[in-house]
Structures are given as C-alpha cells and as structure tokens.
Design brief:
The complex is a heterodimer.
Chain A lengths: L3 E4 L2 E5 L4 E7 L5 E7 L5 E6 L3 E5 L2 E6 L4 E6 L8 E8 L5 E3 L3 E6 L1
Parallel strand pairs in A: 2-11
Antiparallel strand pairs in A: 1-3, 3-8, 4-5, 4-9, 6-7, 7-8, 9-10, 9-11
Chain B lengths: L3 E4 L2 E4 L5 E7 L5 E7 L5 E7 L6 E2 L7 E3 L5 E6 L8 E8 L11 E2 L3 E5 L1
Parallel strand pairs in B: 2-11
Antiparallel strand pairs in B: 1-3, 3-8, 4-5, 4-9, 5-6, 7-8, 9-10, 9-11
Classes of the chains: A mainly beta, B mainly beta.
C-alpha cells in the first residue's frame, strides 16, 4: 500500500522562528491534506492541497505531485502552533492514509 | 451547532468486556468514519459509512463492528475487548466528494479507551 513519511519527527523552536515540515508519499494520490493536532488532541484541517501552493495567514503549503512530496511552512511561530502536524493522502474509496506526524514544540 | 461529538470521552475496560462508542454529527454529512490513533502514529481507518444503512471496512477492521442506523449517528462496537485495542478513537464526518469539492473530514474530540 501507499506509504506516507513525515520529517522531521520532532522539532523544537523558539517563538518567532520559521519552520518547514515535509511529507513524502510513495505513489500518486487523489488528495493530500495537512492537519494540526493540538496538545488537547483536537484535530484541525489546515489545508487541502493535492498540488500547487496555498497560504492561510502564517501558514502555507506546497505540493509537488509529480515528485510526490508536500511542504508545510510555518512563519513567525507562536506557542499556540505547538502540537503534532499530520499529512494524510487519499487513495480512493475516501480512505485517508496518515503519516506518523511531526511533533512541534514552540518555546516562549 | 455542536459539530461532531463522541461519547464517552474516557473508558476503562477489562479484557473480554464489550462496549459501544457513539459518534453523532449535526452537519447533515453523508459520510462518517471511525479511526484509531496509537502513540507515535497517525490515524488508521477502522470502518466507514457512505450513507445511512451502509458500512465498509477500512485499514484495521478486525475486532470491531459498526452500525449506521441513522444518518447522524455512527456506532463503533467492541464485542470482546483486547489490550491491543487500547487506543484513542476518533470519529469524523464529511460531505460526499464531488468534482468541485473534496473530502474534508471534520473530527470529534476523541475517546480514550484503555483495556486492562
């Protein structure tokens, strides 16, 4: 089956720093989404981005489908950005396949 | 508008006991899903439903059963709980995907289940 790999597994930054999270996938996919799981466990959908670039405030994402990777950029990090960031891809039958996540800690 | 809610939030079972997790959504979504999340991993799909009265197996269906008797509810059952089923369970719902939209899934807060 399709494999989804995220890097780095852990990231610790000072408030105000920028970061780049990566998602590699092993086969062509229909869709790709980025999620944030906050420290209380709630999952929030950040981006639907099967290709191209999107921006939402301090967050932006780019997917290069032909090279099978996606990047999530976080600028001017805030402590509220802490949590786990997941990449998930859809292979059909509405099934999302998830990566293991990147755990981000923003220190004040 | 509560979105997706899950009951209960926490539960401790003994091996062999049974229980049912309830998911409810008030967004009139056709599709509903049950996932499990284990430490250090992403979510894995257990079962899903594309409409009232329909269910289908996901990636890790063994040991679980589901029912979708009403559009707004999706039940996940464990007939004989095992320690390997200790996990956090998430329910999600979505509209049907179409050519101009995508399968954006909205998630409940999760149920933390421990099987001793």
């Amino acid at each position: 089956g399709i494999q989804v790999e995220q890097s780095p597994p852990d990231l610790i930054l000072q408030e105000g720093a920028n970061s780049t999270l990566r998602c590699n996938f092993s086969d062509s996919v229909n869709n790709l989404q980025w999620f944030h799981q906050n420290p209380w466990g709630q999952l929030i959908n950040l981006f639907y981005i099967p290709s191209g670039t999107k921006q939402n405030g301090r967050l932006s994402a780019t997917t290069v489908a032909t090279e099978r990777y996606s990047l999530l950029y976080i600028s001017s990090s805030q402590t509220t950005d802490s949590g786990v960031y997941f990449c998930a891809v859809e292979r059909g039958n509405y099934q999302l396949i998830w990566g293991a996540g990147t755990k981000l800690i923003i220190k004040p | 508008n509560a979105g997706v809610t899950q009951t209960p939030k926490f539960r401790v079972l003994k091996t062999g006991q049974s229980m049912t997790l309830l998911c409810a959504q008030d967004m009139n979504h056709e599709y509903m899903y049950w996932y499990r999340q284990d430490p250090g991993m992403g979510l894995r799909l257990i079962h899903y439903s594309v409409g009232e009265g329909t269910t289908a197996k996901g990636e890790v269906p063994d040991g679980y059963n589901v029912s979708r008797l009403k559009k707004q509810n999706f039940l996940l059952g464990l007939e004989s709980a095992a320690p390997s089923q200790t996990s956090v369970y998430f329910c999600a719902s979505s509209y049907p995907p179409s050519r101009s939209s995508y399968n954006e899934q909205f998630f409940g807060p999760g149920t933390r289940l421990t099987v001793l």
